[in-house]
Amino acid sequence: MNSAFKFLDTSIGRKVLMALTGLFLCTFLIVHVSGNMQLFKNDYGLAFNQYSVFMTTFTPIKVVSYLLYLTIILHAISGFRLTMQNRAARKIGYGAAKDPRSSSWASKNMGILGTIILLFLVTHMANFWFKYKFGDVPYVQYMLDVNSGEVLGAPVGLTDSGHMKPHELMASDANGQPVKLVIVRDLYNVVKMAFQETWLVVLYLLGMIALAYHLVHGFQSSFQSLGIRHPSYASLIQGIGVWVFGILIPLLFAAMPVYFYFMKS
User: For residue 208, what are the contacts with CB-CB under 8 A and spacing of at least 6?
Assistant: First the structure.
């Protein structure tokens, strides 16, 4: 165990830790953006609100969440120490000097990009995660068709939710027809209202630009640090880094605040 800690305290060890935590966070981004796509469903936010309940109550997900928080901290600390080390040694950046990517703007500014992303992440967690876990997020009631699962009209806000928990129950509508009632916390409306603020939308867009540059370089560098960037599949790693993590994922995240900012209802 001591030898492992000693290795992680070396230059190579810090790069390996940075690579492993970075790739884990890349996996998380894929899962997170996939779940957040529920925001675009035309169901008054039902799918997203149910997804939020699942992500905060399902035990395996909660365990992984704690691992995620630890990973973010380790990744940030490792990045800071590497940046300080590189500056002290007057090196070009992260990675081998002969690597043409090392002269890129992103490789020379990973510390700055990481800092922007960290500030964005703190704001994001405060606005949504913290508010959902510890804030006063109201409950909302959806009425669903029992056969098709279709939402029957706009949901009804519940002002006196007390110690209510998300649940489902069978009931009857005004015509005596059976319907399903789904009662959940309305994080969807919290997101919708938050992204009416121009400054927050601008912050998210800047955060996604920083994330794009950070991921383009970081994803490829992770494989290099782990010694598995073989020439035979280097182009594949580069393609995934650019098109998936550098373009697609940041664009999908950026589309969310833009969508709600221009949403009329």
Answer: 250, 251, 253, 254
CB proximity list for 256: less than 8 A, separation 6 or greater: 36, 39, 191, 195, 204
Percentage above 70 pLDDT, the chain: 88
* 154 vs 168: CA distance, rounded Å: 17
pLDDT of residue 209: 95
Burial class of 2 by CB neighbour count within 10 A (0 to 12, 13 to 18, 19+):
exposed
pLDDT band at 187 (very low <50, low <70, confident <90, very high): very high
Determine phi and psi for 140, rounding to 5 degrees: -140, 150
State the average pLDDT over residues 82-110.
60
Residue 215 burial (10 A CB sphere; 0-12, 13-18, 19+): buried
Query: Domain spanning 2-137+189-261 has what CATH number?
Result: 1.20.1300
Residue 4 pLDDT > 70: no
Domain boundaries, the chain: 2-137+189-261, 139-185
Q: Considering just the CA atoms, what is the radius of gyration of the chain in Å?
A: 22
